[in-house]
Design goal:
313 residues, mainly alpha, 6 strands, elongated
């Protein structure tokens, strides 16, 4: 964002809104799509607020985070599309890191397989969260399965690379870089989700998240094809607000701005600069008084010498 003219504090101001909204949105989506754990005879609605026990949905996180970012952008008077395009590469990278948690939790895997990269799944005690052991103290293995979270991790890294290259090559703007990220992610999420074997809501033989992926992909594709416009850059206005400009206009603005002073290369150089720029300290009162006295004495006219004194000389 800063490379495109955003002020340095804009990211944090937006994150203050986007992160909490994203967490709440992710939790709401999980509760809605896993109703048996929170509603009905076997459910406990109070558990819906116990977020530390796990249960977040990426769709709710993106939707909630986008809503929070929209509120922040309205306050900052920055276009949401500008922020979305700036985050289009970072989001899939963050999702890739987040998928490592599924490995630690021994969850979200596919069907059985004996491939070299197969994941060994253990029988977990839901009360302790640890693997149950046999009489000899060894963890009880349920077999080896497809690590679908690993597939999604690698896919997300590819999505980040794709969006970075396309944005650099084709100068995508007006939210089109973000739309490309959404399309690429959902295309992978659909087939990876179909491999998973954990319990989930299904409609017409497909898991709910597969249907969501299809719908979101089509929406992103429609936006990508209909929206046109150059990459967005920001320049500060006289009223303190930021104006959206093109890349060329932003380059012209930077050319008009005075070059910033070079930063000191070391602490010693910085100290030297401070000494040079340090304002002259006012003299002490006694020193000023002595200087004034000496100046007054030097300015006094010599006393006249009478004739007798000249003769004696």
């Amino acid at each position: 964002m800063r490379r495109r003219g955003a002020p340095p504090w804009a990211v944090l101001d937006i994150a203050v809104w986007a992160v909490p909204f994203g967490i709440v949105g992710a939790r709401i989506y999980h509760v809605i799509t896993s109703p048996s754990a929170y509603f009905g005879a076997d459910g406990n609605f109070a558990d819906a607020f116990m977020i530390w026990k796990g249960g977040l949905g990426i769709w709710g996180a993106v939707a909630g985070g986008a809503l929070g970012a929209w509120f922040a952008c309205r306050q900052l008077r920055i276009p949401l599309t500008f922020v979305a395009d700036a985050l289009a590469v970072g989001l899939p990278l963050a999702q890739a890191v987040g998928r490592l948690g599924n490995w630690f939790n021994n969850e979200l895997y596919g069907g059985r397989t004996d491939l070299p990269w197969a994941l060994t799944i253990y029988q977990i005690n839901p009360e302790t969260g640890k693997a149950e052991t046999d009489a000899d103290g060894n963890p009880i293995s349920l077999g080896t399965y497809h690590p679908t979270f690993l597939y999604e991790l690698l896919w997300n890294l590819g999505v980040a690379l794709l969006v970075w290259y396309a944005d650099k090559r084709f100068k995508l703007g007006r939210g089109r870089a973000f739309a490309l990220y959404v399309m690429a992610y959902t295309a992978g999420r659909a087939w990876i989700e179909a491999m998973r074997t954990d319990k989930a809501l299904e409609f017409v033989g497909l898991r709910l998240n597969v249907w969501v992926s299809i719908v979101v992909f089509l929406g992103a594709l429609l936006y990508f094809l209909r929206m046109r416009g150059p990459q967005e850059f920001l320049v500060p206005g006289e009223d303190g607000n930021y104006t959206v400009v093109t890349e060329q206009e932003y380059a012209e603005y930077q050319a008009k701005e005075p070059a910033a002073e070079a930063a000191p290369a070391s602490v010693e150089e910085a100290d030297a600069v401070d000494e040079v720029n340090e304002p002259e300290q006012p003299a002490e009162p006694e020193a000023v008084e002595e200087e004034r006295t000496e100046r007054d004495e030097s300015d006094e006219e010599p006393a006249p010498v009478d004739a007798k004194a000249r003769d004696d000389r």
